[in-house]
Known about the structure:
By secondary structure, the chain is an alpha+beta fold. It is about 25% helix and about 30% strand. The chain has five helices and ten strands; from the N terminus they run H-E-H-E-E-E-H-E-H-E-E-E-H-E-E. The chain has helices at about 5-10, 25-30, 65-70, 80-85, 135-140, and strands spanning about 15-20, 40-45, 50-55, 60, 75-80, 105-110, 120, 130-135, 145, 150. The chain has a five-stranded mixed β-sheet. A hairpin with a 5-residue loop joins strand 7 and strand 8. The longest helix is centred in the first third of the chain and has 8 residues, at about 25-30. The chain is globular, with a radius of gyration of 14 Å. The model has no long low-confidence stretch (mean pLDDT about 95).
Amino acid sequence: MNVKDFLTNRNIPFDAIEHAPTYSAQELAQAVHVSGEEVAKTVLLRIDDGFMVAVLPATHAVDFLRVAAFLGATHVDLADESDCAYRFEDCELGVVPPFGSKYGVRTLVDRSLLEDDQIVFEGNTHHDAIRMSRDDYVAIEDPIIADFAHHI
């Protein structure tokens, strides 16, 4: 799934931002000159026997115990690189789009990410980013919203 095509085909307005390659959400925030609170860090979680995409601000980290408690799961951790490569084969290695539903998994968003009107996230590569309305993102993804991240 090409993120730009996905949004364009649904008539969702967005800005595509080309930048030097970045390999973390904090680096992305610096490259596109926005607050880390506005940049979505997306990770793939292994939850019991399945997967879930977690989306949180670049300035935060996943609290695995909170995720487990919220979902009633017994085991939550980060998926490994091979799981990501398999599931997100249309993306550069290490890029996880914030649209889990398009890859057959649910999306969990930390409430703190939704405090700003806009969000920024990686497209399909380490050198392109997408800026879009928070409300449009929530409307098309319909994520589970919870408090599961802590500031780092």
